[in-house]
Specification:
Elements: E1 8-11, H1 15-29, H2 40-48, E2 52-57, E3 63-74, E4 77-87, H3 96-110, E5 115-120, H4 125-134, E6 138-143, E7 154-160, H5 165-173, E8 191-193, E9 196-202, H6 214-232, E10 236-242, E11 247-253
Parallel strand pairs: 4-5
Antiparallel strand pairs: 1-2, 2-3, 3-4, 5-7, 6-7, 8-9, 9-11, 10-11
Helix pairs in contact: 1-2
Amino acid sequence: METDVAVTVAELSQFKELEQASQLYREVFGYNGPESGLNPRLLKALAIHGGTVLGAWSANGELVGFAYGFTGMSDGDIYLYSQAVVVASQFQGKGLGRILKQAQRDSALRNGLVHMRWSFNPIYARNAHLNLDVLGAVGRWFSRDYYGASGSNRITVDWDLAESHEQVAQRRTLLEPSQKQYQSAQWGQAIRMGHSAVVPIPADVTVEPKKLSSDQDMIQDRLAMSLGQLLDEGFSVVSCRRVDSQTAVYLLSQSDPSR
């Protein structure tokens, strides 16, 4: 896997390391209130009792990223739920998020799990592309205001850890995005094509949802309505790709061959 950063990834177990991870979590996400903190004792319990707490260390010994998750179960399916992947600001965009997700994958497989799940805000095209196209996860469920706050919409993905890169690539070739030009007025609106659909979105939203402009907030609301309805109808989100300098598109299939 090509990345622009050299790090060492290892399990975090010492309490001092877990305190560093908690501090990095607050710094990266800008959390100041105690209600949004991450308790090192919780991380310690997860590390001991079936969860994963992994850290990424730079060459000079600085903790520059970490990921944590726990074993989940739904309708008899057991999986690793990745709650967060945290990357220090100066290391973002260098492939460290992929390294940590792959390390979580390896940990899950060692523990006999063959699926991972996690959730992400669909307004962020770059993050969606990483989850869906680079890693090969598939969006199965949509939740509006997932964490209670307005704008905390989430797609929850399922990643089949036994699926090879070749299988993912073959699946993606069946759903190449149209080269048509989309207007900004279409952002967030579903365009149906039989058993598939596309949903255009702005390609470069990077601010937090609470800081979105009024236009972006309206787009996020349209996007929530479109994705919520399509996933309720049995569509799966399989890709998010940039089609021009301003627009990316979600691709959805109602006959996802991986199901």
